[in-house]
């Protein structure tokens, strides 16, 4: 029987989520409902992806008895409230990254899911991609020796007016979250020392760029940049005592990487519709993980467990405080 999905929000990432799902067998995955606060947008989205139900209220998805699991693709500031609404009505949840605006919200969602015996996962799709699978395997084999240094970046230009209009988020929460997760993926669960963090804030107090150095034990360091004003390389390199692994732009969904100088090209499934973010058809891998977990009766993924989301939320919050950002409650 197919896993029946509801989609909350008609954002660009929700669009790509639906495009990715359309490449999977309909006997395994079906989007049966979509909701937006704008009925016209939900109807347009439903028509585009042949979704039978278009709602103008999130609560209608929460109370739809045919929906097994909900994908939350709203603006970041609504992730917590929408995910909580779904859990309270007995829905399993895949919530787009970043999970929430602060650590307390992440912890509350995890405890609510635990108390109701429901599945919830932060959609850190980077971890499910073939490139990260190869990265994990090569490091475990000792191909590059002991990993000691990570250098990564994510920068995408935005107009100053758009940057100043933001009333939540910031470059760390929205862009560098991939670098933070990569750091903890390789060097965690140890909590690092924030050895350095600097950046500029918007008029409303959110970071529009950041340069961060995380210092772990045994000489391990992660250095990363995030920026809303300039286009950065958007690559990641892991340096070890015997070599290095490079993930090319965009490193969080790379289709090209190199291991000790040898290039590896990764094929991705073709799509009938264009995606709006680079290589985001690779969202299929986290979609498949959700179904596998539900079929096994699991409440959390072993690849992105609740503990990882909590430890990363704590670290992201500490970095933002170091930059002078006021954390939203």
Automatic annotation (TrEMBL):
Presence of the UniProt keyword Oxidoreductase in the record: yes
Top-rank taxon: Eukaryota
A Pfam entry, by short name: GFO_IDH_MocA
Domain annotation GFO/IDH/MocA-like oxidoreductase: ranges: 135-245
EC number(s) per entry: 1.1.1.179, 1.3.1.20
Reaction catalysed by this enzyme: D-xylose + NADP(+) = D-xylono-1,5-lactone + NADPH + H(+); (1R,2R)-1,2-dihydrobenzene-1,2-diol + NADP(+) = catechol + NADPH + H(+)
Keyword line: Oxidoreductase
Regions that span the bilayer: none
Annotated Gene3D superfamilies: Dihydrodipicolinate Reductase, domain 2, NAD(P)-binding Rossmann-like Domain
InterPro entries reported for this sequence: Gfo/Idh/MocA-like_OxRdtase_N, Gfo/Idh/MocA_domain, GFO_IDH_MocA-like_dom, NAD(P)-bd_dom_sf
Top-rank EC class of the record's enzyme: oxidoreductase
Family that this chain belongs to: Belongs to the Gfo/Idh/MocA family.
Name of the protein in question: Trans-1,2-dihydrobenzene-1,2-diol dehydrogenase
Upper classification of the organism: Eukaryota, Metazoa, Ecdysozoa, Arthropoda, Hexapoda
């Amino acid at each position: 029987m197919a896993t029946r999905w509801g989609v909350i929000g008609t954002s660009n990432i929700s669009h790509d989520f639906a495009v990715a799902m359309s490449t999977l067998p309909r006997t395994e995955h079906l989007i049966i409902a979509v909701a937006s606060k704008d009925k016209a947008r939900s109807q347009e989205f439903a028509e585009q992806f042949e979704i039978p139900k278009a709602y103008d209220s999130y609560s209608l998805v929460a109370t739809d008895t045919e929906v097994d699991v909900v994908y939350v693709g709203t603006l970041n500031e609504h992730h917590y409230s929408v995910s909580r609404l779904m859990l309270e009505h007995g829905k399993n949840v895949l919530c787009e990254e970043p999970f929430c605006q602060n650590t307390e919200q992440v912890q509350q969602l995890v405890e609510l899911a635990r108390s109701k015996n429901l599945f919830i996962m932060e959609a850190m799709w980077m971890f499910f991609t073939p490139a990260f699978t190869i990265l994990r395997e090569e490091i475990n084999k000792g191909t590059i020796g002991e990993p000691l240094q990570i250098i990564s970046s994510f920068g995408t230009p935005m107009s100053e007016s758009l940057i100043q209009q933001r009333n939540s988020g910031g470059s760390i929460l929205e862009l560098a979250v991939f670098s933070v997760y990569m750091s903890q993926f390789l060097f965690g669960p140890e909590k690092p020392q924030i050895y350095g963090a600097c950046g500029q804030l918007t008029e409303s107090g959110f970071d529009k760029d950041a340069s961060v150095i995380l210092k772990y034990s045994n000489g391990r360091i992660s250095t990363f940049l995030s920026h809303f004003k300039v286009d950065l390389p958007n690559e990641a390199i892991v340096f070890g005592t015997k070599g290095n692994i490079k993930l090319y732009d965009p490193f969080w969904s790379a289709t090209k990487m190199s291991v000790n100088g040898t290039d590896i090209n990764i094929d991705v499934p073709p799509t009938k519709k264009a995606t709006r973010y680079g290589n985001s058809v690779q969202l299929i891998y986290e979609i498949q993980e959700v179904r596998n977990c539900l079929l096994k009766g699991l409440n959390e993924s072993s690849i992105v467990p609740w503990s990882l989301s909590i430890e990363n939320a704590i670290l992201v919050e500490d970095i933002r405080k170091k930059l002078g950002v006021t954390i939203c409650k």
